[in-house]
Write the structure tokens for this entry.
Amino acid sequence: MREALFIKKNAQKWNEYQYLQTEDPDQMADRFITLLDDLSYSKTFYPHSKVTRWINSLAVSIYQTIYQNRKQRFSRLITFWKYELPLMFRKHHRMFLYSFLFFALLFTMGVLSCMKDDEFVKGVLGEDYVAMTEENIEKGDPFGVYSSPSRFTMWVQIAFNNIRVGFMMVIGGVLFGICTLYLFFTNSIMVGTFQYMFFAKGLGWQSVLVIWIHGTLEISGMIIEACAGFVLAKSLLFPGTFSRWISFKRGVKDAMKICVSLVPITILAAFLESYITRLSSNAFDRTTNVSLPVPVSISILTVSFLFIVWYFVIYPIRLEKRIKNDPAFAEKVAA
């Protein structure tokens, strides 16, 4: 449609929206939705036109009328975790699957590389770290690395470092995903190498019960952070029907929501590593009598895994289906 015809068909409606304002919330919502449709069409075909700026200003005016004086309740936070985040993450399930498969591939590469070359472990983890671990194994304390004297300091340091790395992985998507890919590659290879090191020493089962108490949440968080970085990169590289700038802003918004949502999970993983993992490791340390029973370790690991699968995979799918099949519920979620 030519721009002149587009304006002719809609100018009267836009003038009415601008000069004949309404206090009816339903009518206001209808106007806002109509303007968004017109704005989407105008930005697609006339991105630099004055009419696009006009429609945008009308939509902004109605939006501010609706929301600028609206009181934010604590329930808004509940709504975010219960509906908004799962539905948003549902849009990126395919990217999440690709990120998981890529991690599995890199993890396997790390294991196979160690099997082919004994020096690969030292190259990835560092000679000092490997030497310290081997010394701990000889002393009968194979997981002594988790026995820092200050639990609180260890918790804060681990949480801060993991949040920093996760944030870098997400923001790395701005560089077309190159930084995200590099961090994800190195950390995934490192996880595979670290796990193999204990299997090679005959401590495979024990290491799973110790490392993955916190590692289930920590590594899951890393995969999701990489997914967020790739979402951001995709918004730049493949904007689709949106302009690149609009697509980028949408990508940043989604990526930041994912990043922020992982902060509590990262803090919890750091807490488990600082306070709980050491108790599990004591079960295989002959020098102490204070340890976490193996069934408890398995329970923590299992609950962590089920939570990730349920909240980030199963629940978003079920929520989306319910919204599609239950109009009343859909209206409740949108309210």
